[in-house]
């Protein structure tokens, strides 16, 4: 689908409607059911007691954070897949999420207070991981796809093992906070986290959107893009930094939520085509809806207990990853 302004507007409008529907489903569905009368009374400020607390202080912040995290991961997956020209690229598989989680865990371990400190160290972990993966995968000036994927998987495994080692040697007081980053969970969501991630998502998404045409050219190959006037290495560096910021802040707030950046861009690409002027906003909006619905499922599938949302995305993403491996080179990419 060619990304004309009218088509972009129509697709974004439709996906915004899906996002609102996902939000409403998440507000209504849960261990404690909310009736339509209670919901509309809450919107009008007339609801009091436990239902008002559940909607306003528990479910709404959690769903808003899920939407922002899903949008960031969707955008990040699009950028990695385009810049690296690899349909299997996404923050979790490349180890970027693991590096960010390790940075956030180190923040807990050394006692760095506040969301900003954790986010800064998570960003540093994400940037360092990107640099390490690219350095390992680059041979004689070229990027080998198989080496890139294997490097990311091994680095992710290393960071997971490092986090498990820290868990095994840390005090009980810090154990829960560290486990939060290992499994990916939105149970600790609150409005300050939403307000921290909102400007990062908007500014990061806008910055990546500025390079949508460059991404279209990069998918054709670095030499082709350079011949058409793209400063390939500079654009790649800028995009990697933006995505590392998105992933770092996201992981510091939600933990390791894998496979969203893999599934969402491909599902959108299958439906809407490869033009990044459309693919980027559509992946952000669909990623927001996807993760809100996944988190709703995580809260309700074994109610009254709850699963980490990272478990739900892994259940969906692992078979999708295998299918993508089997069909690589076909209409997926």
Topology:
Layout: H1 5-28, H2 36-43, H3 50-83, H4 96-110, H5 114-137, E1 138-139, E2 142-143, H6 145-169, H7 172-183, H8 191-210, H9 212-218, H10 222-227, H11 232-254, H12 260-272, H13 276-300, H14 309-326
Describe the structure.
76% of the residues lie in helices and 1% in strands. It has one domain (5-326): ABC transporter involved in vitamin B12 uptake, BtuC (Orthogonal Bundle). Helix 3 packs across helix 13 (276-300). The chain is mostly helical. Residues 329-333 have low confidence and may be disordered.
If strands are numbered along the chain, what order do they take across the biggest sheet?
1-2
Structural class based on helices, strands and sheet pairing = mainly alpha
pLDDT < 50 stretches:
329-333
What can be said about the biggest beta sheet?
Answer: 2 strands, antiparallel
The share of residues in extended strands comes to under 5%
Short summary:
This protein is 76% helix and 1% strand.
Index terms:
two-stranded antiparallel ribbon, 333 residues, globular, disordered C terminus, mainly alpha, ABC transporter involved in vitamin B12 uptake, BtuC
